[in-house]
Amino acid sequence: MTVSLSAELWPDVQPEAARRLMLAGVESFARRGYHATTTRDIAGGAGMSPAALYVHFPSKAALLFAISKSGHEQTLALVENVVARKAGPAETIRELTQDFVAWHARRHTVARVVQYELQALPEKELAVVAELRRRIEQTVRDVIGQGIADGVFTVPDPWTAARAVLSLGVDVARWYTDRTRQSPAALGRDYGELVLRMLGAG
Amino acid sequence: MTVSLSAELWPDVQPEAARRLMLAGVESFARRGYHATTTRDIAGGAGMSPAALYVHFPSKAALLFAISKSGHEQTLALVENVVARKAGPAETIRELTQDFVAWHARRHTVARVVQYELQALPEKELAVVAELRRRIEQTVRDVIGQGIADGVFTVPDPWTAARAVLSLGVDVARWYTDRTRQSPAALGRDYGELVLRMLGAG
């Protein structure tokens, strides 16, 4: 657990102590689950006292929310950045899949918390994250819808196809480990090809 | 939580009290995670005393293993049953995807425990489950490999393709809920078509 890793994961979070707590939170939640983790565990993991944790996060739920919100914002930004390049539906879906898959491989521990601990979020915080998820799905759906309209993709239902594309990426967080031979970038490229075929543009 | 549901989930487990404990275990593990669940929670959920739980399962880990092993045996059987029909690689992959996806939708709560609590299994028990997982992956890979050899499928790497096929099915357990409009069978059919396209036989 290094300062540079937490700065890489959360470049927008200040101060460094808050990032250190988020990293300790990710490690504890991923290992034992949210409910079995105490604020004492997290503070200890970050080399801090429980009181020091509360300076930065009012509760364990607030820490989870910070991790979850940041992860969803990062993946939404990644998807929106690809779309902003306006490369046409096929190239857009290929790059979007590559980047989304590679993120879930490279950040697999963070991604597990982001994708599998949603039900632990309090209602208001869940609503914020759900809106980010809705925007991610809508963006992918719109690209696929445009590809269908352009005659580039041949799938019958853009919603089901968008869900399948995102599902392939999310599930990488479940099975990818530091021992996986294929690099995140190489896996992203392979999945980009598979997704283009799936949509009828292979 | 009814007797008939637990009998439907685990027809081979006897007596009924053991099935009732497995169902209470699934519900607790899915809601709060394995580590935050006590044997007292599980026994209470089954309307039994903690002592009564130990008559059937020597530990919380033994109960998790029973749930995990049964889930993996059921999905392996499902995959092997489709292959045994010898319908050719394309039809086999279509039916296999349908059944695997529909199982993860219909049994989404059980499937979440089966797919996401592997790391909580003790070493020996994990080895048993890992072998079942290896057989599932190998079976799917072999069908895809046969399809490539027959010129029916055009994917370059049967391992990556097999992983993607299974990944699409497993991830259904994460997002499918009782409120999802599409039925497990309809979702299975849609995914069967998407997978055939992905393999180059759409």
TrEMBL record, chains A, B:
Gene3D superfamilies: Tetracycline Repressor, domain 2. InterPro entries: Homeodomain-like_sf (IPR009057), HTH-type_TetR-like_transc_reg (IPR050109), HTH_TetR (IPR001647), KstR2_TetR_C (IPR041490), Tet_transcr_reg_TetR-rel_C_sf (IPR036271). PROSITE patterns: HTH_TETR_2. Keywords: DNA-binding. Residues 15-75 form the HTH tetR-type domain. This is DNA-binding transcriptional regulator, AcrR family. GO terms for molecular function: DNA-binding transcription factor activity; transcription cis-regulatory region binding. Residues 38-57 bind DNA. It comes from the Bacteria.
